[in-house]
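pasting for the record
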Amino acid sequence: MPAATFVAAQLFGLGSHALIIAVLFQALPTATSSYILSRQLGGDAPLMAGITATQTLLGIAAVPIVVALVPA
């Protein structure tokens, strides 16, 4: 998703700061409130907890990589 956002931002001609912010937001994990919402609305709360944990762990690696690769 960060790569697709980078390409789209380039096509729309975003400036360097806006481009970094857009790509960085795509590399961030989902909000932890999604677990609470899933639990309260009768969804699969354990699955959402797993998704949130996995995305957080992947974000630890993805965010520094995105910041290093996106030109400033």
